[in-house]
Every structure is written in C-alpha cells, then in structure tokens.
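> forwarded from #structure-qc
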C-alpha cells in the first residue's frame, strides 16, 4: 500500500503507525497498530482519538489487512470489532459502511485499499471546505473559545472547528483563542494548546470552570466546537463540557458554532437522546495520567460518573458549519438533516 502521512497517522511499508495522543505534547511517540486488537486498544486509550481520525484509522487498518491476504471472513470480523470500539462518533460507522461495501466487491483487496485512501483524501478536503464555510462567520478581532481538540491531530487535514480558527487567524481575524482544558482527559490542555502554539496562534489555556467568568467579562466573541454525531433534529453530541459552554454562550448572547464534516451527520438518529454516550473508567476522574506518570487524588473506592460526551440541543446552536456550507437553525428546523423522503 502506498506511503501516507497525516499529522497523526502514517503508513510505511504496509504498516499503520499512530502518533500517541496521550503522550503529547511532552513526547512524540509513533506506535504501530499492526492488529485489530492493537488498534482497538489505541482507540480505547485515546492514543487515537477524534471522530474523523477513529474512522480513518480503522479503514486504513482494514485496507492493510486485506492487502496482507486476510480472508473475507476474517476481514468481516475485524470490521465488526473495530465498529464496536467506540460508540458515539458516527464517522467510524459511516466510514466502515463504505469499507463493508468495498469488501463485497469481487476484487475486494483493490476495492478496500482504494476506498480507505479515498476516505483519507476526502477527509482532508472536507476540512478545507469546512474552513471555507466557517471563516466568513469570524469577524476581525475575534476572541474565540474552543473545547476539546478538533485540529490536524483529529483529522486527516487541518481540522474542523480548529481548522476554521486556524484559517481565520491566517486571514488576520483572530485576536485570541481561549483553550478549554477539557477535563477529564485534557484534550484541550494537551493537544489544542500544543497545535495552536506550534502554529503561532495567540492562545491562553483556561480550566473549564473559567469559561463563565470570561464570558461575563465580555472577553469571548464566539464559541467554536466540533461534533461526534449530529442527529436529524440538529442536536449535537460532542466532548463532555460542550453543553455547559452552549448554555453559557446562550445566556451571554454569544454565537455558538459547531463545525463538522457530513460524515458526522446521522440522519437516521432522530434526536440527541438516541445517541449512545460512551461511559469511561473511574480512574480518569479520580486522577490523571500521561507521559508524566499517574496521579490519583480522590478517596479510594469513590463512586464516579464519567460520560465521555454530552448532547447540546439544537436550540442552543447558532450554526452548523459543514463542508457543504453553513446550515442555519431555520434550515435545521425545516428538516435539512432528516432522511430524504422518497416520492
Ligand atoms: O474522546 P475524544 O477525544 O475522541 O473526543 C473528541 C471530540 O469530542 C471532538 O470534538 C470530536 O470528535 C470532533 S474531532 C474533529
């Protein structure tokens, strides 16, 4: 299979490598994902993370496995296992539906390799189109708050919400980015802070609990976030803490934008209450771990609630910025995300 490199994935000599997003920014470790089990483990541990990237890594591994001579039956099993690796981000399911289609082709090896590379190339393009659609919404001097990580690390391209911010900054319109640290796993503090600093974008890291005060002080002009799944009524599942920011933005009359590729849209899902929300380990809340080691501060055996995502109702969203353009609340209410009805 041809050599390929994105910010956080690469294929060299027919092997998939991932940049360990749990070790960043202190360490830049490339880890091999040679088997289905190994990739599932990387996905569970969030070494590979971000809705688009999860789908792409699974698709690329399947293509490599097909190329290595894995049988159609074994590939079907591998696909099923990968599909079950994380429940919330629908990009994984959407990408794997296309890989399953390729698996049914007579020459499934060529079809799967072609499809996985096509998905990766498409994702890069989708990010560019999202940035095209998003930047007109960012006036000069904007101070933007973002949550989690939606950048090049999470996609094959420049990112979704972070791609918009980056492009708007290149156009001279971003004065400041507030980076929410994103407890419990600190994707903001570890990854977005790193990506923006590397790019030279003026940014400041805040704890999640500081957002309200910043907004009250008039220091936030807009909130931009990504999405893991967009339901047909416009409700959005995204990293836990997104809903709090949407409520705060609504109260302070600050625009709240969601940026995502169409691969994040789930037309079959009627509303946010139907989106499966991943529950994660207690240890992520009782402490923190990374390349710096593991720290635990909570009392032993404390009961913990740890949903990885929350749902922001459509009513709190000012615009859904997709690769196809900006979608307004009126269009969403009119059913633009609902399944097409046959005549
Ligand atoms: O648990 P994670 O880090 O995979 O969650 C990621 C997010 O919630 C992102 O906002 C979303 O996947 C969009 S990434 C372009």
């Amino acid at each position: 299979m041809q050599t390929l490199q994105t910010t956080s994935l690469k294929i060299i000599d027919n092997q998939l490598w991932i940049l360990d997003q749990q070790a960043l920014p202190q360490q830049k470790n490339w880890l091999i994902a040679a088997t289905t089990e190994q990739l599932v483990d990387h996905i569970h541990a969030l070494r590979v993370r971000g809705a688009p990237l999860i789908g792409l890594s699974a698709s690329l591994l399947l293509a490599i496995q097909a190329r290595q001579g894995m049988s159609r039956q074994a590939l079907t099993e591998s696909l099923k296992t990968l599909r079950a690796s994380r429940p919330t981000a629908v990009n994984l399911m959407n990408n794997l539906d296309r890989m399953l289609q390729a698996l049914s082709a007579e020459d499934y090896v060529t079809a799967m390799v072609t499809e996985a590379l096509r998905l990766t190339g498409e994702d890069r393009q989708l990010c560019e189109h999202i940035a095209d659609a998003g930047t007109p919404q960012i006036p000069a001097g904007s101070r933007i708050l973002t949550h989690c990580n939606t950048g090049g690390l999470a996609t094959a391209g420049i990112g979704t919400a972070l791609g918009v911010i980056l492009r708007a900054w290149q156009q001279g319109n971003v004065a400041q980015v507030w980076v929410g640290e994103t407890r419990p796993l600190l994707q903001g503090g570890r990854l977005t802070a790193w990506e923006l600093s590397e790019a030279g974008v003026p940014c400041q890291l805040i704890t999640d609990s500081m957002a309200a005060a910043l907004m009250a002080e008039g220091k936030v002009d807009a909130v931009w976030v990504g999405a893991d799944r967009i339901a047909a009524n416009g409700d959005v599942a995204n990293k836990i803490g997104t809903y709090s920011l949407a409520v705060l933005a609504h109260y302070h009359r600050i625009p709240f934008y969601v940026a995502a590729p169409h691969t994040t849209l789930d037309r079959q899902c009627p509303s946010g209450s139907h989106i499966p929300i991943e529950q994660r380990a207690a240890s992520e809340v009782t402490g923190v771990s990374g390349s710096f080691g593991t720290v635990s501060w909570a009392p032993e055996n404390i009961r913990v609630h740890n949903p990885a995502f929350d749902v922001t109702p459509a009513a709190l969203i000012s615009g859904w910025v997709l690769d196809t353009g900006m979608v307004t609340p009126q269009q969403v209410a009119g059913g633009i995300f609902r399944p097409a009805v046959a005549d």
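QC bot note: The CA atoms of residues 86 and 154 lie 15 Å apart. The chain has a mean pLDDT of 97.
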